[in-house]
Amino acid sequence: MLNGKTAIITGASRGIGRAIANIFAENGALVGINYIKSDKKAKDLFNQIEQSGGKAILLKGDVSKQKDVENILKTFTSKTKKIDILVNNAGIYERSNFENISYDRWNKVISTNLTGSFNLCKKAIAYMKAGGKIIFISSQLAFKGSLHGADYASSKAGLLGLMRSLALELASKKINVNAIAPGTIDTDIIANYSKEIRKKRINEIPLKRLGTPNDIAYTCLFLASNMSDYITGETINVNGGLYIH
Hints:
Blueprint lengths: L5 E4 L5 H12 L3 E6 L3 H13 L3 E6 L5 H15 L4 E4 L14 H22 L7 E6 L3 H4 L5 H21 L4 E8 L12 H10 L8 H12 L10 E4 L7
Parallel strand pairs: 1-2, 1-4, 2-3, 4-5, 5-6, 6-7
Helix pairs in contact: 1-8, 3-4, 4-6
């Protein structure tokens, strides 16, 4: 589905980003694996893709820092000359009540989750001269809010505003811009959940299971492919029916 395409996935060394990178590579894309600290995980993913006959490029860097973003794009485009797909997945989340969120933490979450996507889009658009696909990984919390992460929910809601605005602005450049809002996905973010909490979460979901990273990755594949060429400015909820609107 993505033969001949080039794709950058931010936060790709683990979780949802890793699943997206794998599935994109399996479908023929040359994948840019962005990460910050997880050198071993990123290299393992790179080797896995290469050994399976795919192609990948390691792109270490912090998307919240403009200089790092410039280096990421320079490294990628020096080998590809273009960007067809950009998946803004990088994000951080820590459970905390609003009163306990420090100014430093607020700024860090917004800088990574929202400004990081702005930084990538700002620079990447120049390499999408033939059109392309931009995908944001938001969250159900962008709609319903969060009891333990006002900073995270705010950043993910901000992504949807950025997505809709870019969809309008970039349509004339043949760049489709969409978002995915995952529900409760079984990644390391919920690794510390007790059995009781996991069971409670599952019982709240109409489809009676947690989501998997591949559930998000396959939706991302659809939005990255030419099957979604007439879709822009939309958010696809992938949450097992947990939040229907």
